[in-house]
């Protein structure tokens, strides 16, 4: 069945901001799908509120709307664009839910929009707990004993019948939001209450707990002719009980014999057939390790995180094929882009092992509960490929960028053996390392299996690594041992550390023995067919398949990716890397990418000319460099991950294109940077570098509190805090020094002024600044967590001139060629520099889109020698556009228990949305809608409780809210201040006072907004912390900065929903 | 202990010995299945061949007595990247290494199996020798390797005497199954559908079958060059000329094609694995199949008056099935009985059952 000719214009829904449970994988899927649709001559209308994505580029879709993903907004877009069809299965749970809402509310019918691919009835069957259960029963597919309930009492009654523990799963939430395992009635009451609240339909599933069973996933596809195939099988090393997004996953399955494997594969195919899904689908199973008994856990009738992993693990482009199926093609009509000869109707077969490890945010959220359960907590993941399990594991560990080189975690060796045994029972992100430590202490795999239920096969492989460590500790290894160690993925650095040598000596030793990495191709077919995919991984095997091109006329450029997504280093950097690759290709260069993140566009095999799926460490990069001998390397775009490798690349003799590693160092090295500022006559807050707590306290007292304390060479303000006294300093220094610091710590005077930020491109003579962005929150809130506005609202022309001059002078003084990002503070009518980053920043994608200046393309051209004056976008400050763009941070606090939601200098947001409109209040309103943050309605209720310093400023905001007929509730201190100022406020008891107190009121659901500004320090027993957490857990909006509260008042008083109009950013100049 | 693998083209791979310590010359073929090594080893179709597993981790779940596809492993040798020292599975009864030793199968691990697969893919299936000795002469070895030919294998793997397998539940049909190297699961697929199955040695005469009062005949899979089996082909012609429903798989499919005038030829490197897409031309549907064959029916030699091509391989267009003009006779190249591999085409056994139902009521 060929393409349906009636499909001419398709609306594609993105997944919105990056949150835990819904990350870059949907940008990858959406981008691939849009390209696949346009390849077929279909006009594509794209909607996504997330400006950091590649899919929202003007060259990915024909019409791009960076607009809120809600029914009202998308309805307007449908009215305007009149697409004939909508593709709902590529935008994650968000896209799917939105499409279902559009369908249920009759919007699709009204405008004659056809839902492509899977039908609404099928989606409902897979998504609705009860319908799904009924469908599985009709199919004879076993489900876990469970019941759908809509009240806590029903949950308790059902659990009483089937016995504890039980798992609670809310319907229609992503990443299992709000779910959990309840071991007794009190915990069930709490989890069920939360889950019912978070579910779109107020339902939760209570099910028999099968924790400890094997968790197996199958990615399957089906077309409308009924052809069904399996793409990839995956086995979670963490047994059932840990969300698959937080599990270490291996592909293909390792411990299933053919019988079990085929049983589950057939079940997955039967399910996708029965649900009549057209496209991709993910089926999760629990398999009893002691029998053939299994249960269907979950089915996702759409492209998912697992399908991104499966795509990268096999080379099979799931999203692309799903898009073509949606157009009407059958699998056997779609060519296999990997082999060029076969079709999409086959099952990939692997001749390697793929391992995924989640990237959890506990390095940033040091106080968060590390326990893993059915609620996903990971922000990203890494993937590694090898032809041994151990090799894939060791590579993946290195890729995490957590200062861990192997199966060894600092601190665990200091624990008593009894403590290790106790810790084995803890299901958290450290369990892998605890298991390794237990093996090192002589625990048998059987004993560990009894506690952790991890399969013996995996434990034996960990044991292999431990045995190899012990062997290497005897001294410099012989050739055979060294060969084995390299096959197991040991880095030279780790081997050196074990045997008391140096990385360089081990490298020289093994090269003398002829032990060198060889690269193998990911070809979907285990070499059965000749393939043309330029997608490689390293092994220590005999044959190297990656043949470097010998074309002297093409300059070969290495682009380093940004590794796993984490807080502070998000999808923006993948946007930059990919755009740089595209720019280089346009310039006739051959491009090579090294990256290890399976969720991204950059690791799609047809982005760069060659893709090496490898850890981003000096040794792993060097292996590629020695083979490919690139003409130059680009490190500006891959965030801190890539920048950190600049020096290593320089040492390898690879020229860094653009700003040199010395320039990077000058910006990061406090002494050198201060000298440059002095030389340029640019003021900055007074401060110094320190190494010890004593020094930090001395400097703080010299410059005067409050001070900013932070490690150098970090991204996202990691470990950054505002200290108000010596006690704060002592506390922060202890946290910072928990990981060994190679670089000094900075202590600066904290200036509380207006913060502005610029991105610029410098070519050695001229600077181009596409726009000046102003932060709504004053300095002190991390720039990534601030609401950012373009064009600036309050920056006077004289300051703009100063900012331009400083940016140009600094770029020149640092030797920048390419990108520079600077954050300034305007304080007492003077412009200060806070921070300079001679690299890409997280604001680049959005500022590129709203100004129409292709910053990465320009920066890449400049790095290769072009001059800005020849590139058509002028120099200095680019003219301001007539639209206001508001970038709003998005947090994932509801997924992370025990994390303080109060904003500060350390970044906490996971993603962002954009509001674009003709006025600032309207743009702000759109951003609010994109963030699903509602300003309180007239007659609504706001709780205000602020620290003493803010009691003056809050008055104006409170008065404004009161004028809008909003009821104000406040605790004693704030209430007194308000009443005294003549603002009507009702008193509510503090947390420590009698019930009903403030927490009861938040829990009651009668409050629309909480304004709470945090007191200092990281203490968790404060009232403020409890109030903020309570708001998050009861889905009540909570703002923690005075300026954010003011923005809410702006929206309440000055914006009108009825006046919002969608804007096609591909037609910004005309619209 | 070290072991070497010497290829007909002179390439030598060094590795470590697994299974029996010894020397073996065989035809080297690669299989891309990621599970099912025990079923593969015990599939009689591999008689005379050394199997290269392209998936690098083999032996992970050990071996058990339930997953044998015949009485013993028939492959001559096993070549793997990494053999798991232990098996982990609730049915595991021993390690793969112990199993290989028990049945005197030689093997080698530590070989770059992807490099080896690429050689076999680009240069075609070739012979090879595994040796654990260290002082061998490549020249002598190559002479022996080149001289090797898989032959007489059907005689080797077939049963010495007929054997009856009772149906599961109520018996509905009686089926004669010609054992050219039959896999256990083919028998099970029939008994599970209510057939009493009499498995006959390969050289049983057509007359004996025809006089047995059967409802249908099934021709099994098996090893070697189909054209070598001249006498069997002659007997099959007689069965074809009867009105007994016939269903044939793999070697059986090739033999029946030869019996009815078509030809077969050797493929460069064959199809061995569990991921081959096959299109059922009448239904317009594709199915993922389990495959294991080095020979194939030559499409131009199929007389349209005798049979039509019912299935083709989606990857390379080769013949995967024939529907004969004579009633109730169809054959496929792939393995609907799976084991190992996908079970997506097991419905063909139902079709065979239907064809027998038709015959009985005719």
**Low-confidence runs of chain A (pLDDT<50, min 5 residues)?**
none
Q: How much of the polypeptide of chain B forms β-strand, as a percent range? A: 25-35%
| Radius of gyration of CA atoms of chain A, rounded to a whole number | 28 Å
The overall average pLDDT of chain B, rounded, is 95
CATH topology of the largest domain in chain B: Rossmann fold
Q: For the record, what is the CATH homologous superfamily label of the largest domain in chain A?
A: ATP-grasp fold, B domain
| DSSP helix fraction of chain B | 10-25%
What structural class do the secondary elements of chain A suggest? alpha/beta
Please, how many helices of chain B?
Answer: 10
Largest sheet of chain B: 10 strands, mixed
Name the CATH superfamily classification of the largest domain in chain B: Class I glutamine amidotransferase (GATase) domain
Beta-strand percent range of chain A: 15-25%
Number of strands of chain A: 40
CATH C-level class of the largest domain in chain A is Alpha Beta
Q: What is the global morphology of chain A?
A: globular
DSSP strand count of chain B: 19
Strand order within the widest beta sheet of chain B: 10-12-11-13-14-19-18-17-15-16
Characterize the quaternary organization of these chains: heterodimer
């Amino acid at each position: 069945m060929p393409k349906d000719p009636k499909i001419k214009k398709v609306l594609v829904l993105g997944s919105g901001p990056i949150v835990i449970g819904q990350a870059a994988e949907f940008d990858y899927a959406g981008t691939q799908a849009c390209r696949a649709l346009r390849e077929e001559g279909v006009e594509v209308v794209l909607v996504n509120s997330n400006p950091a994505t590649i899919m929202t580029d003007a060259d990915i879709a024909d019409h791009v709307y960076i607009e809120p993903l809600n029914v009202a907004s998308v309805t307007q877009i449908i009215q305007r664009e009149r697409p004939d069809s909508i593709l709902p299965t590529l935008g994650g749970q968000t896209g799917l839910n939105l499409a279902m809402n559009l369908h249920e509310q009759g919007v699709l019918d009204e405008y004659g929009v056809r839902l492509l691919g899977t039908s609404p009835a099928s989606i409902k069957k897979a998504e609705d707990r009860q319908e799904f259960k009924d469908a599985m029963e009709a199919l004879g597919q076993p489900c876990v004993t469970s019941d759908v309930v809509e009240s806590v009492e029903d949950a308790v009654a059902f659990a009483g019948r089937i016995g504890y523990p039980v798992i609670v799963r809310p319907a229609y939430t992503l990443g299992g939001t709000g779910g959990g395992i309840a071991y007794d009635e009190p915990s069930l009451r709490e989890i069920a209450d939360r889950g019912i609240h978070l579910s779109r339909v107020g339902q939760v599933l209570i099910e028999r707990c099968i924790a400890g069973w094997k968790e197996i996933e199958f990615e399957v596809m089906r077309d409308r002719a009924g052809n069904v195939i399996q793409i990839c099988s995956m086995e979670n090393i963490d047994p059932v009980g840990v969300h698959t997004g937080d599990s270490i996953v291996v592909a293909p399955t390792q411990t299933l014999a053919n019988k079990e494997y085929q049983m589950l594969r057939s079940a997955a195919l039967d399910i996708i057939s029965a649900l009549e899904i057209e496209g991709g689908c993910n089926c999760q199973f629990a398999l009893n390790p002691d029998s053939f008994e299994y249960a269907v856990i979950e089915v996702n009738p759409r492209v998912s995180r697992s399908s991104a992993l499966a795509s990268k693990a096999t080379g099979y482009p799931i999203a692309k094929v799903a898009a073509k199926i949606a157009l009407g093609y059958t699998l056997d009509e779609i060519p296999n882009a990997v082999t060029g000869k076969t079709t999409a109707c086959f099952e990939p077969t692997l001749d390697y092992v793929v391992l995924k490890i989640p990237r959890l945010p506990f390095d940033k959220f040091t106080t968060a509960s590390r326990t893993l359960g059915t609620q996903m907590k990971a922000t990203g993941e890494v993937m590694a490929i090898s032809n041994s399990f151990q090799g894939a594991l060791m590579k993946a560990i290195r890729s995490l960028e957590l200062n861990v080189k192997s199966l060894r975690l600092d601190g665990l060796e200091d624990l008593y053996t009894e403590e290790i045994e106790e810790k084995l029972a803890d299901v958290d992100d450290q369990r892998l390392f605890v298991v390794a430590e237990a093996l090192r202490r002589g625990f048998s795999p059987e004993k560990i299996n009894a506690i952790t239920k991890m399969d013996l096969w995996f434990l034996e492989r960990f044991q292999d690594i431990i045995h190899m460590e012990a062997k290497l500790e005897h001294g410099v290894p012989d050739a055979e041992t060294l060969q084995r160690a390299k096959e197991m993925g040991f880095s030279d650095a780790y081997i050196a550390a074990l045997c008391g040598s140096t990385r360089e000596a081990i490298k020289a030793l093994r090269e003398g023995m002829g032990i060198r990495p060889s690269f193998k191709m990911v070809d979907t077919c285990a070499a059965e067919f000749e393939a043309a995919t330029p997608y490689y991984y390293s092994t220590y095997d005999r044959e190297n398949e990656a043949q470097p091109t010998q074309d002297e006329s093409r300059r070969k450029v290495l682009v380093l990716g940004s590794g796993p997504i984490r807080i502070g280093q998000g999808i923006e950097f993948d946007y930059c890397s990919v755009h740089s690759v595209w720019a280089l290709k346009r310039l006739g260069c051959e491009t090579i990418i090294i990256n290890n993140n399976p969720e991204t566009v950059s690791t799609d095999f047809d982005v760069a000319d060659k893709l090496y799926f490898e850890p981003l460490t000096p040794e792993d990069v060097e292996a590629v460099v020695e083979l490919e001998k690139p003409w130059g390397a680009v490190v500006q775009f891959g965030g801190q991950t890539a920048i950190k490798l600049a020096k290593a690349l320089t040492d390898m003799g690879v020229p860094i294109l653009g700003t040199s590693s010395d320039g990077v160092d000058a910006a990061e090295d406090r002494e050198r940077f201060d000298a440059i500022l002095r030389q340029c006559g640019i003021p900055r807050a007074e401060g110094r570098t320190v190494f010890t707590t004593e020094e930090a306290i001395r400097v703080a007292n010299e410059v005067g509190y409050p001070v900013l304390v932070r490690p150098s060479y970090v991204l996202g303000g990691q470990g950054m805090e505002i200290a108000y006294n010596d006690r704060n300093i002592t506390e922060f220094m202890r946290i910072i020094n928990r990981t060994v610091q190679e670089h000094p710590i900075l202590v600066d005077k904290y200036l509380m002024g207006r913060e502005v930020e610029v991105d610029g491109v410098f070519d050695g003579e001229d600077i181009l600044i596409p726009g000046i962005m102003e932060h709504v929150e004053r300095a002190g809130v991390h720039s990534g967590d601030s609401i950012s506005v373009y064009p600036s609202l309050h920056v006077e022309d004289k300051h703009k001139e100063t900012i331009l001059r400083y940016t140009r002078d600094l770029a020149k003084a640092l030797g920048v060629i390419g990108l520079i990002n600077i954050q300034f503070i305007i304080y007492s009518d003077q412009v200060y520099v806070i921070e300079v980053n001679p690299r890409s920043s997280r604001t680049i994608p959005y500022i590129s889109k709203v100004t129409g200046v292709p910053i990465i393309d320009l920066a890449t051209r400049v790095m290769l020698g072009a001059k800005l004056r020849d590139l058509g976008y002028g120099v200095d400050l680019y003219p301001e556009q007539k639209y206001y763009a508001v970038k709003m941070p998005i947090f994932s606090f509801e997924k992370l228990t025990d994390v303080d939601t109060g904003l500060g200098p350390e970044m906490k947001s996971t993603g962002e949305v954009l509001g674009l409109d003709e006025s600032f209040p309207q743009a702000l309103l759109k951003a609010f809608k994109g963030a699903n943050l509602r300003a309180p309605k007239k007659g609504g209720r706001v709780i205000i409780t602020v620290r003493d310093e803010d009691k003056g400023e809050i008055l104006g905001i409170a008065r404004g809210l009161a004028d809008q007929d909003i009821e104000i509730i406040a605790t004693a201190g704030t209430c007194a201040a308000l009443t005294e100022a003549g603002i009507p406020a009702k008193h509510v008891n503090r947390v420590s006072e009698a019930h009903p107190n403030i927490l009861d009121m938040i829990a009651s659901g009668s409050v629309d907004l909480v304004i709470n500004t945090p007191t200092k320090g990281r203490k968790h027993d404060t009232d403020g912390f409890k109030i903020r957490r309570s708001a998050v857990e009861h889905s009540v909006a909570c703002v923690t900065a005075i300026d954010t509260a003011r923005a809410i008042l702006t929206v309440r008083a000055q914006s009108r929903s009825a006046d919002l109009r969608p804007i096609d950013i591909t037609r910004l100049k005309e619209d | 202990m070290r072991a070497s693998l010497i290829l007909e083209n002179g390439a030598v791979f060094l590795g470590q010995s697994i299974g029996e310590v010894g020397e073996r010359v065989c035809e080297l073929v690669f299989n891309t299945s990621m599970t099912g090594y025990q079923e593969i080893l015990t599939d009689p179709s591999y008689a005379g061949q050394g199997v290269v597993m392209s998936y690098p981790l083999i032996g992970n779940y050990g071996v058990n007595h339930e997953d044998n596809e015949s009485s013993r492993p028939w492959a001559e040798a096993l070549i793997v990247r990494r053999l798991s020292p232990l098996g982990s599975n609730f049915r595991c009864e021993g390690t793969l290494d112990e199993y290989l030793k028990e049945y005197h199968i030689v093997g080698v691990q530590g070989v770059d199996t992807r490099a080896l697969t690429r050689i076999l893919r680009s240069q075609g299936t070739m012979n090879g020798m595994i040796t654990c000795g260290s002082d061998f002469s490549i020249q002598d070895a190559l002479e022996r390797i080149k001289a090797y030919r898989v032959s007489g294998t059907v005689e080797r793997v077939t049963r010495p005497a007929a054997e009856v397998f009772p149906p599961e539940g109520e018996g509905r049909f009686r089926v004669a199954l010609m054992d050219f190297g039959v896999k256990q699961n083919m028998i099970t697929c029939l008994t599970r559908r209510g057939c009493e199955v009499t498995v006959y040695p390969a050289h049983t005469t057509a007359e004996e079958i025809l006089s047995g009062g059967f409802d249908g005949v099934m021709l099994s899979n098996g090893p070697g060059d189909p054209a070598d089996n001249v006498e069997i082909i002659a007997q099959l012609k007689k069965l074809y000329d009867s009105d007994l429903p016939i269903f044939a798989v793999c070697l059986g499919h090739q033999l029946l094609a030869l019996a009815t005038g078509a030809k077969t030829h050797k493929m460069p490197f064959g199809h061995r694995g569990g991921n081959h897409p096959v299109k059922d031309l009448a239904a317009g549907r594709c199915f993922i199949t389990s495959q294991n064959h080095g020979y194939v029916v030559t499409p131009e030699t199929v007389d349209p008056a005798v049979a039509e091509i019912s299935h083709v391989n989606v990857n390379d267009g080769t013949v995967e099935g024939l529907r004969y003009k004579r009633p109730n006779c169809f054959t496929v190249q792939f393995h609907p009985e799976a084991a190992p591999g996908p079970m997506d085409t097991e419905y063909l056994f139902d079709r065979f059952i239907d064809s027998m139902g038709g015959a009985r009521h005719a």
